[in-house]
Amino acid sequence: MSSAPKSWIWKGSALPSDPAPLPPVSGTFHAAGTSRTIPAELTVAGQTLILTVGDETRPVPPGYRVNERIAGVARALLLADGGRFVTADDTGFSALLAAVGHRNRGSGITWLERRGWATLAVLTAVTVLLMLSLRLAIPALSQWVARQVPPALERQIGSGSLTTLDEVMFSPSELPEPDRQRITALFRHLRDTAGLPPDVSLEFRRGNRLGANAVALPGGPVVLTDELATLIPQDDALAGVLAHELGHLQARHSLQQMIRSTLWLATVTLYIGDDTGVSDLLGGSAMALIDSGYSRNDERDADTYALTLTARAGFRPDGLATAFEALKADCGPGCDSGSLLSSHPGLSERIDRIRRPDR
Amino acid sequence: MTDTVTAAAQPLAHPLRFTGSTQGYFRLWLVNLLLSIVTLGVWSAWAKVRTKKYFYGHTLLAGSGFDYDTTGWVILKGRIVAVVVIGLWSVLTTFAPLAAIPMGIALFFGLPWIINRGLRFNARITVWRNVRFDFQGSYGRTLLYFFVLTIPVYLTGLLGLPWLQRARSRYLTDAYRFGTAPFRLEADLGGFYAAYLKTLLAALLMLIPAVAAGVGLTFALQDSALFDDLSSDAAAGITIVAVYAGIFIVSAVAVPYLRAQLLVLTLGGTRLGGTSSGRQHRFSCTLSPQRYAWICLSNVAAVVVSLGLLMPWATVRLHRYTVEAVTAHAAEDLDGFVDTQDKAGGVISAEIMDLEGISVAL
Predict the structure, then answer these.
(1) Chain B contact for A127, CB < 8 A?
(2) Which residues of A fall within a CB distance of 8 Å from B256?
(3) What pTM was estimated for this model as a whole?
(4) Which three-class secondary structure string do you get for chain A?
């Protein structure tokens, strides 16, 4: 970045043909590892920096370093023996460095930071890039990464999640054996119709806090809660729900969502930074907010997929709508929360999309 | 020579100054952001160094700024290893929850070591007038004060928390060095209990309106025709919102309120030795906890409302207020500090702490 010729900023004084001597730069000197402050002066003779400490003048031996240039921060010349010359005169110091051809680290960035129009341009670029990465790059990237993950690895993640869910939420299913066999047969028929591999299985669990629900874990299995199986006994409705979950599996939504969250977190952290507590406070909620739109789209896609799959497998295509109606009736008016913040669209909206696809 | 002695009889007050500006930091932050996005996050290591150097370099004690003496490369290397370690850890816990148990135990006993190395790294790269800070913590004490003792403190229903906080601050302060000069903390236990008690009372006072608003909202909704048959779910939802409001208030106000009080206590009790006369340098901090909490709360509001654009303003505002409340009372001139010549290892530990949000503040 700062490998560009140094002379372009300090043209006037850096040209070799310019014989005018550079003014000396005054500052302070600290010998290696001491805090004692000694007045000092830095100047240049030919191609060599000359340092005067107290009344002793000598050339600066090679092997010195220079601290990075940062707006308003004192400049430092770090000698090979550990001595440190510090000055507040950035302009004079930079001119001396240019005269001896030493790389003035951080100059390119400082140049960008100094100009009003550059700030405006950078602000615009940052806004556009952030928008692009949020709207396009991250979802596309997650989709691509999800496709690269081998199915075996995805199944590992899925069974890992099931182990965790079994510990924190689920308890063993209490559904009667004949019901289980009937639903399993139905699930296998749908799975084979969908062309998903036979190791994608159906698991029965008591949902407890999760209530009436079905979950597609990455790479399978699909988990059906007793509560849902009891709430919607009809085959067509159950087929609709299971087909919806198979839709998530087919499109690898869970995996994409996991990758997306990670990338959101990285972006939000990058943006907000780590210097105040704000990111801790807002990181989680901001991510949920950003991701909810994509999550709702995934749900709609899975709904659409379920309609096609159930029809192909010989079920009533509006079975999913029947299931949603039963869910809606079960949990009362308060639970149809189709807001901007929810991970799922509202039930009424989803029923409408199935019953009246032309709208 | 006699001049120095008579001058040193009276401690010389050096108030800390902050010379940075909102505009300066805004531009630095913006360019960092652009480069970080363009490089897909790789620049963030250099961004961290430039940001630290800006705040350190603009913080002046007796006319000399501090320096964060490392490079983006060092931070990047540390960060890559830290990401790999944390990544391996999360992969392992996802795929093999059982193997995670022995790993978790190993991590528990490894963390004190990581914390010590991380603190040491950050201390060693902090320079003032060519003398570096240092941290000489012991594994056993970090394990004791940050892990083992938390268990009995929780068992006492947090009654022992102020005691533990003082023990931690004292351990950390006593482990820090400036060059070869040791720091020491002299602080009364009473002050720590008072700070926690005041915070608790303040939090309760703030929770009353939050709870009242939550309850009021519930009744208001119950009476409205729209929610005639308000289900228990909706009531639960409102309760959850009220609870979240409470948590938000506690974290956005009470935590900074406590932090400021602890800062005043620890800085006020901090001594720095290593003088030729044997007298100690002292520090004082005049932060107003209320003002500090207000700055933190309004910062959060400003950052949210501006969609993050006021972040630099908020950071500079808090930093300036904190720094300018601190004064060093020098027992003699500040020329006598001498550095130890050790290298600063431990960037990986420092980055693990950074990425995992482990903060071990004084």
Answers:
(1) no
(2) 277
(3) 0.76
(4) CCCCCHHHCCHHHHCCCCCCCCCCEEEEEECCCECCCEEEEEEEECCEEEEEECCEEEECCCCCEECCCCCCCCEEEECCCCCEEEECCHHHHHHHHHHHCCCCCCHHHHHHHHCHHHHHHHHHHHHHHHHHHHHHHHHHHHHHHHHHCCHHHHHHHHHHHHHHHHHHCCEECCCCHHHHHHHHHHHHHHHHHHCCCCCCCEEEEECHHHCCCEEECCCCCEEEEHHHHHHCCCHHHHHHHHHHHHHHHHHCHHHHHHHHHHHHHHHHHHHHCCCCCHHHHHHHHHHHHHHHHHHHHHHHHHHHHHHHHHHHCCCCCCHHHHHHHHHHHHHCHHHCCCCCCCCCCCHHHHHHHHHCCCC
